[in-house]
Amino acid sequence: MYNPIDTGVHATLHPRSGDATPGAGVAVERLMYASQCCIAGPVFGEMHRIREHALQRNVADQVHVALLHQSGWFMEWLEGPTQGVRAVMARVARDPRHRGVKLIHQSRGPRRLTEPWSMAIVQARDAPADFARRVAALRAEHLGGQVMEPAAVWRRLSTPLAHPGAALQAMNDQFQRVMVCSAQGTGSFDMVRWLGQTHGAEVVHRRFAGARAEALDVATDYVDLDVGAVVRRVIAMARNGLEIGLTQAFLVDYSHAILVLCGDSARDRELMQRLVAACAGLAHRPVVVGLGRPSVDHRGLQRLAHAGGLVYLDCDLAGVVDAETLWAAAEPALDFSLAAHSAWPG
To answer: Can you tell me whether residue 87 is helix, strand or coil?
Structure first.
């Protein structure tokens, strides 16, 4: 029996024959903990330094990691062979940047994290005490034997308390998740900001970064809308964000990916290719809704989508194209899916 942290929680990690070289379809150890952040100064810079160290040590241990900072807390999601996870947790226990480490999830299952390192900072209004209450609730459920998918644990912990259905994040028949990405400019972020203003809902701002040191961190904002039958989360994602493992870990839960197309064939094709690559290997892929003026090459984009196993719905726009017009065009496709399906996988 292995006790990775001195909190009275004993995590039993049983080595399996598949632990040596975990790959697609192989069950790995999945562990998540939350801890209070003890960093004095800019957190994002320190997280980049953590990444540099982790990429040297965690890669050798075959462990993939996603690190979250929010409301003065850290949460880390680990996936890998038992011995590797054990080694990482031993280092965490000695790290002075953490205190009060609490185990909130442990299971075995397929990898969701597709690269060795991802990290996120969420700018939410919740105080550290609000986050602590969510940690305590998840810890109690863990100790009581309740097991959720790691992605559901991440969402429940990071969703601000004031958002619609914040406590129901693990219930897929209560949530519809939709990603919006623009081939050029900031149309996806303009749409999410407009939705927040129109519905009087808080827009949550996040920064994601991946394993590549040369790649810049990217923005990804979201807003939660109560549409009656479900809560609909609309997520604006930067184009480069499609290449980050943390983004890819959640794609299986999205019902739709709305692409705001610009009519530049090269840019539109590049966006579709990024989405196809991000969805490769997923058991469930989002339906693609392509929005653009009549000059958009929907037929070519549809061929790319179909080759990647994606359904593509095209929508031509006329007149002024702004956030309101884009949403008015996309929402009927989301509502139709909502009427036809009561749940999304994940």
So the answer is: helix
